[in-house]
Design a protein that fits this description.
Elements (H helix, E strand, L loop, with lengths): L4 E3 L16 E3 L6 H8 L3 E3 H17 L9 H14 L3 E3 L4 E4 L2 H8 L3 H4 L10
Antiparallel strand pairs: 1-2, 3-5, 4-5
Helix pairs in contact: 1-2, 1-3, 1-4, 2-3
């Protein structure tokens, strides 16, 4: 992932409690790569279907002006599925079918994109 970082300067700069090293902050906000995969997954899905669903989600966020960390559904699957499989959240079968093992955890990841996919909010009523 190619996110650039900056360090806050000055007396209010955040530092690590243990090492006292300055903490780095991303210059752009984007959801984690596994979140893109999680948002596109369903209980059992082929790689081709998953890439198409991820691409549709990415395009929806892009058209809404979102600042993305991925450029395609294929990139999201290549980078995110491995992380989810390593955590035993999903299982990737030999034929390329993805199956969900931990639905609750997967929902947690997917909610990282929920605010980007929701439509514009209406102003709260004052009366």
């Amino acid at each position: 992932m190619s996110t650039s970082f900056r360090t806050r300067a000055g007396p209010s700069a955040a530092v690590c409690m243990e090492t006292k090293a300055p903490m780095e902050w991303p210059t752009r906000s984007n959801a984690s790569i596994p979140s893109w995969v999680a948002a596109a997954l369903k209980a059992s899905i082929t790689r081709r279907e998953l890439e198409a669903r991820a691409e549709a989600i990415i395009e929806a966020v892009r058209s809404a002006g979102g600042n993305l960390g991925v450029t395609s559904g294929r990139q999201a699957i290549e980078e995110g599925a491995e992380a989810l499989a390593a955590r035993n959240i999903i299982h990737v079968e030999r034929g390329g079918r993805f199956r969900v093992r931990e639905r609750t955890v997967l929902r947690y990841y997917a909610r990282g994109l929920q605010h980007l996919l929701a439509g514009p909010r209406r102003a709260p009523r004052t009366h």
